[in-house]
């Protein structure tokens, strides 16, 4: 398929995009921009996007990503509570992960991938078990780090995003794929912004 054929297909998919997908994308964009600004409002916005996305993902048989959305929902509530508590305690700054936290994040990715792949391969009709499992497991780790306000969350989330983009195009969810491309770009700047926050915090301590 050449570029013109691909672009024509993309236009057709956009024209047939449902209202639910448009809303999911809109709230998803708001969520990541709020996360970049280190704002607690990323969580209520994200919860709306998650609920809408779950419907779309189930409809195209991306079961691991649907499970990921449920995890996102739980972690969003958890993160919202943690961020609110830290704000009240005056501890709302981001930080680098400890070696122990990074180890946990890697284990979440590896073990999560293994479990999800086996479940998808043997108990569902998924036609993309490897990619679906990889996207979900690495994002699990990223969301766990985000809840703890650790800067490495952007790295894990972008590892997930870079595989999710072609997967979503393959599943004919063009807006979701475009959203993920946007998230990938914003995550790069989010990492840089959070790094500046950490550096400023260190300078105040000197």
UniProtKB/TrEMBL annotation:
It is a multi-pass membrane protein. It comes from the Bacteria. It is found in: Cell membrane. Keywords: Cell membrane, Membrane, Transmembrane, Transmembrane helix, Transport. InterPro entries: NMN_transpt_PnuC. Its main location: membrane. The chain crosses the membrane at residues 14-34, 41-60, 66-83, 104-123, 129-147, 154-169, 175-194. GO terms for molecular function: nicotinamide riboside transmembrane transporter activity. The keyword 4Fe-4S does not apply. GO terms for cellular component: plasma membrane. The keyword Ribonucleoprotein does not apply. Belongs to the nicotinamide ribonucleoside (NR) uptake permease (TC 4.B.1) family. NCBIfam families: NMN_trans_PnuC (TIGR01528). Required for nicotinamide riboside transport across the inner membrane. This is Nicotinamide riboside transporter PnuC. It comes from Pedobacter psychrodurus.
């Amino acid at each position: 398929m050449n570029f013109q054929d691909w672009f024509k297909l993309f236009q057709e998919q956009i024209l047939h995009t449902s209202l639910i997908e448009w809303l999911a994308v809109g709230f998803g964009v708001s969520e990541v921009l709020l996360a970049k600004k280190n704002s607690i409002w990323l969580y209520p916005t994200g919860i709306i996007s998650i609920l809408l996305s779950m419907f779309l993902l189930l409809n195209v048989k991306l079961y691991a990503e649907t499970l990921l959305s449920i995890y996102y929902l739980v972690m969003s509530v958890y993160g919202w509570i943690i961020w609110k508590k830290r704000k009240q305690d005056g501890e709302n700054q981001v930080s680098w992960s400890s070696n122990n936290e990074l180890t946990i994040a890697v284990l979440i990715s590896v073990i999560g991938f293994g479990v999800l792949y086996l479940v998808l391969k043997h108990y569902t009709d998924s036609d993309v078990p490897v990619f679906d499992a990889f996207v979900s497991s690495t994002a699990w780790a990223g969301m766990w780090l985000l809840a703890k306000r650790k800067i490495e969350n952007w790295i894990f989330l972008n590892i997930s995003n870079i595989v999710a983009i072609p997967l979503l195009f393959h599943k004919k969810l063009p807006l979701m794929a475009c959203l993920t491309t946007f998230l990938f770009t914003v995550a790069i700047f989010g990492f840089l912004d959070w790094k500046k926050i950490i550096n400023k915090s260190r300078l105040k301590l000197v």
